[in-house]
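Milestone 3.1: sequence recovery, worked example.
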């Protein structure tokens, strides 16, 4: 009886250990994505890096993340998720140390590229409903906690600490992650087959509009909290390292609320298009406000940060819309395609806005307000254009038949479940 009673407890403990390990891995990957924003002014001052290079430094991570999606999928099918996670964990440890020891912009950018490759494999098939909230916790760490750590020990030491924690996570992956052995060996998908699947997914009606929406959605939050928010608060308002970290933390916490509120919005609106378009246009409005006003008083700035962070929480609805477009056999490849759009959008916007800021002359490394107003105006325009195109996309949940009933033909109105866990990489 005792042995039998102990089995459920042991199983529960194993499940908790697995959950905690995967959460830690994904949380750290999200931290690394957004870690440049707070420390960007310090890196720029230390190495005399112009804004364009800071944009490339941050966006290189996202380019690498998007670029490895197809070969990573083949590797997961061929070697299993656990082996891929262990290899990627080692890659992240090395890249974090490279970043900590980097002395030139090229060395830092190379480290960010390797970091993007390493963090691309943390899989959350079992946590699909939680991965956005978990990711936000990683973003929280990249704001005030990183600022305080950098102020106390320097940003280089902070990344050495991240490397040490990631090494511990790798050890836990080796110990607690178990991969079941299938009764029938799974068919291995080649790179060519993955590409053919992507091509088939691209032919699904409205995928192009969803791809563009994905490009502007995540890039909006990453543009401010993950990159230019720190320099903007430093150059325009004069905030130091911990001050700008605290303010970016406000936006990151507000996003947690936004993710929660948007979780039921597709049901409340009876479709995906309305809440996504509303979220995109209101986010564009927040950027437009800063572009027009330039600088806000402290209290309105806090209100702006709360509102901006909360409104940016519509990302899960875009993901659900994307899943609903694809038939079951294409969901994995289709979501990989949209993930590439999401991460690629950050690369494009951060790179372009870095070039835009460099159109203005800096004084002692400080860029004028006009440069940031241009950045915010560009992102607002990007959101408006993509939202307008997105409004013409097919909505499996909201579109109706002539008899007025919800459409169910084609892909299911219910979000499909990805057959391969790599579809949840983002």
């Amino acid at each position: 009886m005792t042995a039998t009673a102990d089995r459920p407890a042991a199983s529960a403990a194993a499940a908790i250990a697995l959950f905690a390990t995967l959460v830690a891995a994904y949380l750290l990957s999200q931290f690394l994505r957004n870690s440049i924003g707070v420390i960007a002014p310090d890196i720029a001052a230390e190495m005399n890096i112009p804004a364009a290079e800071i944009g490339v430094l941050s966006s290189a991570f996202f380019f690498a993340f998007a670029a490895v999606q197809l070969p990573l999928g083949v590797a997961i099918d061929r070697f299993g998720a656990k082996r891929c996670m262990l290899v990627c964990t080692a890659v992240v440890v090395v890249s974090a140390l490279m970043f900590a020891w980097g002395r030139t912009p090229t060395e830092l950018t190379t480290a960010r590229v390797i970091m993007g490759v390493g963090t691309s494999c943390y899989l959350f098939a079992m946590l699909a409903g939680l991965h956005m909230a978990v990711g936000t916790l990683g973003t929280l760490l990249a704001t005030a906690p990183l600022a305080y750590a950098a102020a106390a020990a320097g940003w280089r030491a902070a990344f050495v600490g991240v490397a040490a924690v990631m090494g511990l996570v790798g050890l836990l992956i080796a110990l607690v992650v178990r991969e079941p052995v299938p009764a029938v060996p799974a068919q291995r998908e080649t790179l060519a087959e993955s590409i053919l699947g992507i091509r088939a997914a691209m032919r699904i009606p409205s995928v192009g509009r969803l791809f563009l929406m994905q490009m502007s959605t995540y890039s909006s939050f990453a543009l401010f909290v993950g990159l230019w928010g720190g320099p903007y608060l430093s150059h325009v308002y004069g905030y130091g390292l911990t001050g700008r970290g605290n303010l970016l933390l406000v936006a990151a916490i507000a996003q947690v609320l936004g993710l929660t509120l948007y979780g039921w919005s597709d049901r409340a609106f009876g479709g995906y298009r309305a809440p996504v378009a509303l979220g995109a246009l209101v986010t564009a409005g927040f950027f437009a406000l800063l572009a027009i006003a330039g600088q806000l008083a402290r209290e309105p700035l806090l209100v702006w940060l709360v509102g901006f962070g909360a409104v940016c929480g519509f990302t899960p609805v875009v993901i659900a819309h994307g899943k609903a477009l694809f038939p079951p056999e294409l969901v994995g490849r289709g979501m990989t395609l949209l993930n590439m759009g999401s991460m690629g959008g950050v690369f494009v916007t951060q790179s372009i806005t870095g070039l835009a800021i460099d159109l203005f002359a800096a004084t002692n490394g400080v860029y004028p307000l006009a440069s940031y107003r241009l950045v915010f105006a560009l992102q607002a325009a990007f959101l408006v254009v993509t939202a307008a195109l997105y409004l013409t996309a097919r909505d499996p949940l909201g579109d109706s038949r002539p008899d007025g009933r919800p459409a169910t033909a084609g892909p299911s109105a219910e979000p499909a479940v990805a057959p391969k866990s790599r579809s949840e990489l983002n």
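Confidence is low (pLDDT under 50) at residues 125-129, 401-426. The chain has one domain: 10-424.
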